[in-house]
Write a structure and sequence with these properties.
Blueprint (H helix, E strand, L loop, with lengths): L1 H9 L4 H16 L4 H9 L8 E3 L2 E3 L3 E3 L10 H6 L4 E7 L12 E4 L4 E4 L8 H24 L4 H9 L3 E6 L10 H12 L5 E5 L14 H16 L7 E5 L5 H14 L3 E4 L13 H4 L4 E4 L3 H14 L6 E4 L5 H10 L3 E4 L1 H6 L2 H13 L2
Parallel strand pairs: 3-4, 3-13, 4-7, 7-8, 8-9, 9-10, 10-12, 12-13
Antiparallel strand pairs: 1-2, 5-6, 6-11
């Protein structure tokens, strides 16, 4: 139904407008009696083979929603109802920022791809924290009410499903110079610490000028070690992951392995969007749009990066694979290349929630 009816209708309109409309629609439908339950029944699989123990966390299944979709923590519970085992919010910055000028999001339909130059548009970390707090209170209150009213087991199960594993993807404001970038990451880390299950340090978006320079060994080590020191001083630390670009050279990837070893962070997310434009079929004007390219053209490169990191590090750290997962087989390929979990973004836009279900079904089938 999504690919035959919903997607053709949505794809007739501006991508960013559709994104905001979809959020409102998902939030509205979740309030319709029975809709969330029906969504979970259709898309959310439960099976022992899907569970993953990683970073000290238990993932109900290994398929997550990548950062950039629920930037401001507005609908992570609703996305969990569509089958995701975890949701990464953000990228969040200390101060709200509008991002880059519109138009800044483009569909390359012939390539199964998206180009975006959003520029970390978000309402700021404080607004996200308030939403996370409100949702936690709402769930706790509803759960206590269910218990007092002796709710049916299936109703209580629905409440438990709302306790979604959440990653907090953090970045720096555009106006913050690189030499002070660590301060922005510290602010986001401290404010989000009690409200997310893990952190992702984003230094790899191509849409904030100079950001990718922070992937160089010295500044990146400084940022990660600073956060790790803060983390280790907490009563109970949270996993810290690093999200990297697919455009790094082999030497740069070797540096990443060394940085992970030196700072002892918990893992890597591979990969972010690419600035490469190779063998695309879509209109040349779309190909020339500045920004990060995601979707099918990134499939092979993202898998190559995962394989390289896994092999060269001898599997020393977990990898979350993301980039061009458009089919269940794409996800399987990344898991076999060395990823422990996977995330969707563009594949979810093009294929809908059935892709989440299909990936989990294939994982069960293959016993991965």
């Amino acid at each position: 139904m999504y690919k035959s009816i919903v997607r053709p209708l949505l794809f007739r309109f501006d991508p960013e407008g559709v994104h905001h409309f979809s959020f409102k629609a998902i939030k509205f439908l979740s309030k319709v009696p029975g809709f969330s339950s029906l969504s979970r029944k259709r898309y959310k699989l439960k099976h022992p083979a899907l569970k993953r123990q990683l970073f000290g966390l238990e993932f109900e299944n290994p398929v997550g929603l990548a950062a950039g979709f629920d930037k401001d923590a507005k609908a992570y519970s609703e996305f969990s109802d569509l089958g995701f085992g975890f949701v990464e919010i953000g990228t969040l910055t200390p101060k709200p920022q509008a991002g880059n000028p519109k138009t800044r999001l483009f569909r390359l339909k012939q390539d199964g791809a998206i180009v975006n130059r959003m520029g970390f548009n978000n309402g700021g970390v404080d607004a996200a924290v308030e939403r996370l707090k409100r949702n936690k209170k709402r769930i706790s209150s509803a759960s206590m009410l269910d218990a007092r009213n002796n709710s049916r087991p299936e109703a209580l199960e629905g409440r438990r499903n709302k306790h979604t594993l959440i990653g907090g993807n953090i970045g720096k404001n555009k106006v913050t110079p690189n030499e002070k970038a660590v301060d922005d990451y510290i602010i986001c880390f401290n404010k989000l610490f009690d409200h997310v299950d893990y952190f992702t340090v984003n230094v790899s978006s191509p849409n904030t000028p100079g950001l990718r320079e922070l992937q160089d060994r010295k500044p990146l080590t400084h940022i990660l070690q600073t956060l790790q020191d803060l983390n280790n001083a907490k009563a109970a630390r949270k996993p810290i992951l690093l999200k990297i670009a697919p455009d790094l050279t082999d030497n740069q990837l070797m540096d990443i392995i060394g940085i992970v070893e030196d700072t002892k962070i918990d893992g890597v997310i591979a990969t972010n969007t690419t600035i490469e434009r190779k063998e695309l079929k879509s209109d040349i004007t779309l190909q020339k749009e500045a920004g990060g390219l995601s979707g099918a053209p990134l499939t092979n490169r993202a898998t190559e990066v995962i394989s390289f990191l896994h092999q060269k590090s001898n599997g020393a750290f977990p990898i979350i694979g993301v980039g061009g997962i458009m089919t269940a087989q794409d996800a399987i390929d990344k898991l076999k290349a060395g990823a422990s979990l996977v995330q969707l973004y563009t594949g979810f836009v093009y294929e809908g929630p059935a892709l989440v279900r299909d990936i989990n079904r294939e994982i069960i089938k293959q016993g991965l």
